Amino acid sequence: MLTLSEVRTIAGTLAVRGTARLLAEAGDLVCAIESPRYQENPYPLYERIRAKGPIYKAPSGAYALTSHAHCSSALREPKLGVRTTTGKLIGESTNALADTFVSLDQPDHGRLRKVAAPAFRPKLMRQMRDGIEATTHRLLDRLGTEFDLMRDFAAPLPIAVISDLLGIPPADRTRFAHYGQVVGRAFDGLGNSAQLRVYKAAVADLQELFTRLMAERRTDPGDDVISLLVTAETDEKITADELIATCRLLLIAGFETTVNLIGNAVVLFDQHPEQWELLREQPDLAPGAVEEVLRFESPLPLIYRHPHEPFEIGGHTIPVNRGVVFITAAANRDPEVFPDPHRFDITRPEAVEHLAFGGGAHYCLGAPLSRLEGDVAFRALAERLPGIRVTAPPVRRKSIVIRGFLSVPVAV
Ligand code: HEM
Prior knowledge:
The protein is α+β, with helices and mostly antiparallel strands. The chain contains 18 helices and twelve strands. The chain has a five-stranded mixed β-sheet with strand order 1-2-8-5-3, sandwiched between helices.
C-alpha cells in the first residue's frame, strides 16, 4: 500500500502522476484532491470526503481529516511530525521552504521559531500599522480606473510590508520582490527544466542578497528582523545558513499567503455584493471580514503531517509515517462549528474559529501581521474604491497548496 508521501513523491515523475490519476479515478478521494478537475471549486469534493466520516482512509493508505474538532486537536498533537521518522518531506526537491523551520520537527523547529518569534510581538505589530496604512494609500494613489488587482495592489502590499520588516534597502526591493515571486511560484510545481533553472537562480540570488545584508547588519544593526536574527547568531542560537533560510521563510510565507487573502476577498465581495455594501457602510467590520475570507477561502487549504508513533483518532489507529492530510478548508466549513457553512457572511461571530493559520506548534507566526494587513487593506478598499468590480474572469492559480488568483481584472 502506498503512503500519501510516496504517492506525491512519485507523482513528481510522469509515470506515477498517472498512477495518482488512476487511483483518483478509481475513487481515491485523497488523490482526487490533486486533480486539476477540482481546482476551481474543491468544496464539493471536500463534502464527499466529509460524507465518508470525519477520518477518511483512502485506498492509497493516506488519511484525510475534515472535521474541525479532529483537525484542531490533531494539529496540537506532538506525535505528528512535518517529516517522517526517516526525515522525508513531501515534495522536498521543489520546496523552497524545505530547510526552514516550517518544515522541521523538534528540537530544531522550536529553537529556530523562538529566535524569529520576537519579530511578531503584538506591540511591534501595532507599531507597524501607520507604515502599512501609508504603503496601502501610496499604492491606491497610483491606480488608474482599470487595473489588475493582483499585480497592482494585492502583491505589492505584502511585499512592501515584508521588505520593511526585514529591512530590505530601497535599491534592492525590486529584485527582492522578483525573487519572492519566482521562488513562491515553485509551490505550484516546476513543470520543466527551464522553470527549475530560473527557480534555482532566484534561490541563489536571494542567498547572496541575504548574506550581504547580514554582513552589513553585523557591523551596523538596525531595528529590523535581519538585525534581530544576526544578534541571535552571535549568541549561537542560529547558524548563518539557518538565518538565511529563516529570512527566505519570512519572505515567502509573508508574501504568498497575504496576497491571496486580498485577492480572494475582492473576488468574494464581487460575488456577494450585499456583503460589500455592508463593509462600505461599516468599514469597522473589516477585522471580521478578514476572518470570514480566511474561513471561506483559505489561502493554504491543506496541511500535511506524519505520525511518529501509532496515532489514535476517531476510532482509527494511523500507522507511523502514514500521510495525513488536514483539509483545513473543509474544517472551516464544518457545520458543527459554522452554521450554514457555505454562506459568506462577514458578520459571522464564530468566523475567528477557522483553522486557516493552522494550529499547535507550527501555528502561523505571521497571523497578527496578516490580520493587520488585511484589516488595513479591506478598510482602504471599502473607503477609497467603493465601486470596485471584477471586469473579466479572474485567472486562478494552478496549485493545490495555495488557493488564489494570478490575475483579477477590476475597474473602479
Ligand atoms: C493570510 C495570510 C496567512 C495564512 C493563511 C498563513 C497560513 C499559515 C499556516 C496554515 C501555517 C502552518 C503550516 C503548517 O502547520 O504546516 C503557517 C505557518 C507560518 N507562517 Fe503563515 N500564513 C499567513 C501569513 C503569514 C505572514 C504574513 C507571515 C510572516 C511574515 C507568516 C509566517 C509564517 C511562519 C514563519 C510559519 C511557520 C510557523 C512554524 O512552523 O512554527 N505567515 N502560516
